[in-house]
Each structure stands twice: as structure tokens, then as C-alpha cells.
Design brief:
321 residues, alpha/beta, eight-stranded parallel beta sheet, two-stranded antiparallel sheet, 11 helices, 10 strands, binds ligand G3I
Length: 321
Amino acid sequence: VRDVRSAPDAELLRRHFNSITAENVMKATTIGVSEGVYNYGPADELVAFARANGMQVRGHALVWHQTAPAWFFAGDPAAADYRATVQRRLERYVTDVVTHFRGQVYAWDVVNEPASDGSTTWREDSPWYRALGPDYVDIAFRAARAADPDTKLFINDYNTEFAGKRGRLMSIVDAALSRGVPIDGVGHQLHLQLTTPTAAQVEQALADTAARGLMSHVTELDISIYDDPGSCSASRTGCATGYPSYAEIPASVLQTQATRYGELFRVFRRAQNLTSVSLWGLSDLNSWLETFPVRRVQAPLLFDEQRRPKPAFTAVAQSIA
Ligand code: G3I
């Protein structure tokens, strides 16, 4: 969620959800002001709201290339002690943040989006990868486990429902597990398009995770009302034209979306080792998809712009009844 201070959003949360993820305020861009200096205020507020209302909190996300403040990487990369310095900053950050929330966060996305979308295994343009190489994953997970032995530790990525991306992520996971790195589960973001990928593809991703003895969490589910070619997210070209307004989204589109939500939750119900499902937002009033890959009308969630249940909500309710 973006902000628990909105009274109608709080009401919706209390009524329908038992787990909350901070959309942004637990990221290093909010918490990590500078080395050893933290801004916990907004996250503490979210945790207090959750506790007051009997909800649990998923922590998102300790280490992510998009939210990595420059102070982590300050210094001369050619200096003999540069690597050790960045490693120390990472260990300190993970240790302090996980310790701060110990006992209040049931799972952490320790590392977010380490796998490449291309032919390499690793996302090599990550500042973490550039500074520390693949070791950054080991360092972060080991520090998190030492700081809180009870919270579950996740590696989280998107497009795990596609065999290629999943293969790259799982090769990172398998290698880390073989070194004894304490990974408890795989987070499947599940930012889906209107008609792809299929529920069967999602089911395969969950099955591959369970086959490794790992837990799955669905961490960021939403379903776009468009089908875009790959070029849309890669280069903002070829994106589907947006509908002129929210009111003009065809009912048939919302119905297709509802059917997909229903199918997915049936898959979730029967999946092994899937213990948490989170939507990436509360109502269609606020979604990151309004501006990504391009600005256009969106309606990816279960509640509409007036926070009323959509056909998607009904389909989910029916499939888990
Ligand atoms: O709140 C400020 C606003 O005051 C300011 O006017 C505006 C101008 O840029 O920025 C607003 O903050 C933005 C914030 O979203 C709230 O909308 C940040 O700039 C923007 O960077 C931030 O984007 C978030 C993004 O992660 C980067 O952290 C999205 O909300 C959030 O949905 C998105 O979530 C990610 C997951 O963490 C990881 N998986 C992919 C997912 C989608 O990108």
C-alpha cells in the first residue's frame, strides 16, 4: 500500500486484507538516509496500523537496483578496500533494518530482481552487481538471517512465469542454496497482462519453486487491461493505445480480467508451498501502471476508482469460497 493514512483505504484494508506490504516506504530510498542514519517513520506508521488492526506485514525490499542510494557506492572503485567498504555498508544496512523490524515483519524481500532479462544470468547493470558481483545476494541473506532468525527470507522477481527468466532466477537460487545461503522462498511478482501469460504458466512457476523445497509468495499481483508487445516495456514502442477514460473501459475487458483473476486464485488455492498472495495496490485509484510503461488509463486491481468491488473481486471471492 502507498499510504495507510487515507481513511477509506484503511477501511478497505481492514475489511479485505490480512497482510500489508509497503509499496515504497520500506525501500532504501526512504529508510537509508546515509550510512548509519535511518528514516523509519513512515514504515513504523504502517507497521503500527497493521498491528492495531491484526494484520501482518511483508517487508519490501532491502536490496534492489532501482532503490539503491548513492552513498552505498561512494568511493573509488579502484581502491583496494572499495569492495570491503561496500560490503560493510550493505551488511550494516540489512542488519540494522531487519533488527529494527524484528518480530514485526513475517517475510522480507531481501533481494529484489537480481536476474537478467537478457542472455546473462545476472542483471549486470545493478550497482550491487557492479560493486560486489554475485556475492551481494549471499551477503544480504546471511546478514538478514543473523538479524532475525524467524522472519522468512525471499528472493523476489518478475516474469518468473516465463521459463527463460525463471531459469535464470533459479540458477541464482540453486547456486546460493548449495553454498548454504539462507533463502526460504521465491517471490513471484506476477505483473500480468490482460491475456498473457496463462494461469498454467503461473502454476508451473509455483510448482518449480515447490519442487526445490522452497516456499512461494505472490508478491505484486496485478493484471493490466492491455496486451502489449515486449517492445512496450523495453522501449516504450508499440504499446496498446489507452482507453479515453476509466468510464470507457469496455465491460468485456473487465470481464476478461475477472475471469483471469478467478483462474489464478484457483491455481493459488491448489498450489503447494504458496503461503501469501499480495496485490500491488488497493484500488484502481493508485497503481504504478498508470505511468508504466506509458501513461494511460489503467484498472489493474480488484476495486475501482471509487473503491467499489469490480467483477475481478467477485471472481476472486467465488474462486476462494
Ligand atoms: O510521492 C512522490 C510525489 O510526492 C512526487 O511528486 C512524485 C514525483 O516523482 O514522486 C512520488 O514518489 C514516487 C512513488 O513511486 C509514489 O508514487 C516515486 O517518484 C517513484 O519512484 C515511486 O515508484 C515506485 C517504484 O516501485 C520505484 O520505487 C512505485 O510506486 C512502486 O509501485 C514500484 O514498485 C515496484 C516494486 O517495488 C518492485 N517490483 C516492480 C514494482 C513496479 O515498478
